[in-house]
Specification:
- The protein is an alpha/beta fold and 356 residues long.
- The protein has one domain: 3-Layer(aba) Sandwich (Rossmann fold).
- 36% of the residues lie in helices and 23% in strands.
- α5 packs parallel to α7 (186-198), α6 crosses α7 (186-198) and α7 packs parallel to α8 (216-232).
- It holds the Pfam family oligo_HPY.
- It comes from Bosea vaviloviae.
- Belongs to the ABC transporter superfamily.
Length: 356
């Protein structure tokens, strides 16, 4: 079974039929997930040459995941692990080296013409920095009107009515139509950025660190807004964050990335109550330290290895307190461990096998 099939089975245990002939589990026919990422690879060239030729940054390295319609999946990890690259790949702001992305049953890389325009309506990105996402000289109403105008949706009066309605949906009154970004707070601008992402009525929203530039009170307000909008607009979401508190508050399932790979994926409560991968455990410990005001304390030592020259074997072995010779020699696979969890760790897999 492929990694994508395993991911689907992990979030839908009923998708496996343990009573199949010969005791082999085979997938039953189930509705396909709304978003399917299969064996995705994205590299970026950098200056210089290595033994194998031109050096590259391995930003996304054979990532597979799926998101059922209506779910919020969290994607967490340290800066540089590949989260934002996945965000750009999902909305086709950049192209993958290999692998595929299917959204609503359509292969994103193959879309052309009207199909591509329709995809642009269906999948939208909420950017991290609201100040950088908006033209500082353009009135907010015009910024929200731009996508409608580009897609030929209505006349000027109709578009203005749509913009005013969307401003109300995100908790802003009509006075914001004529404001410029410099007249607004960070929280207000993030609401505008969310409104612009929703103006075309997408079905899939990718949120790339949408609260990282905000203070704690504004962060909670924006997260509550996203929860409300998810229900009202029947959205499927990917929430990208380095903050586990954010994904714990908002998400149904969480995937943990390290150095371009997913190392653990599980339902939210399962991941926080029974983390399996040592890296996930370290992230949770660091989050607990921050909650207790110990911002200078480190739960995980060292720095991630270079994505230009990732280590052989498990990529985490140089920072892992449990590493053993097998971890240095052989890269672990992302494997199901029950309860909807997938883990890329020799030790965690062995512990579960021994207990069963």
């Amino acid at each position: 079974m492929s990694v994508t099939s395993l991911a689907h089975a992990a979030l839908n245990p009923a998708a496996l039929n343990p009573a199949s002939p010969n005791g082999i589990e085979v997938p039953l026919r189930e509705p396909a997930p709304f978003v399917v990422v299969d064996d995705l690879v994205k590299t970026y060239p950098v200056a210089g040459w290595g033994p194998g030729g031109r050096r590259v940054v391995n930003s996304v390295d054979h990532v597979s995941l799926s998101i059922p319609e209506g779910e919020v999946l969290g994607l967490v990890g340290e800066s540089g692990c590949g989260k934002s690259t996945i965000a750009r790949l999902l909305v086709r702001m950049t192209s993958a080296d290999s692998g595929s992305i299917r959204i609503a049953g359509k292969d994103v890389a193959r879309l052309r013409g009207h199909d591509l325009l329709d995809f642009r309506k269906q999948a939208q990105l909420v950017f991290q920095d609201p100040f950088g996402a908006l033209d500082p000289r353009m009135r907010l109403g015009h910024s929200l009107d731009a996508p409608l105008s580009a897609h030929g949706m209505g006349d000027r009066g109709q578009r203005r009515a749509i913009v005013l309605e969307m401003l109300r949906e995100v908790g802003l009154d009509e006075s914001f139509y004529d404001r410029v970004p410099g007249e607004c707070s960070g929280g207000q601008l993030q609401r505008v950025v969310i409104a612009r992402a929703l103006i075309l009525k997408p079905r899939f929203l990718v949120c790339d660190e949408p609260t990282s530039a905000l203070d704690a009170s504004m962060r909670t307000q924006i997260l509550n807004l996203l929860l409300d909008l998810r229900k009202r607009f029947s959205l499927t979401l990917l929430m990208i964050s380095h903050d586990l508190r954010v994904v714990r508050y908002l998400c149904d399932r969480i995937a943990v990335m390290y150095l371009g790979q997913i190392v653990e994926m599980a339902p939210r409560d399962e991941l926080f109550e029974r983390p399996r991968h040592p890296y996930t455990k370290a992230l949770i410990a660091a989050s607990m330290l921050e909650e207790n005001g110990l911002y200078g304390a480190a739960a995980l030592g060292g720095e991630p290895p270079s994505p230009i020259n990732p280590p052989h074997g498990c990529r985490f072995h140089g920072r892992c307190p449990q590493a053993e010779p097998l971890c240095h020699a052989q890269p672990p696979e992302l494997a199901p461990l029950g309860d909807g969890a997938l883990v890329r760790c020799h030790i965690a897999q062995r512990e579960v096998a021994s207990a069963s």
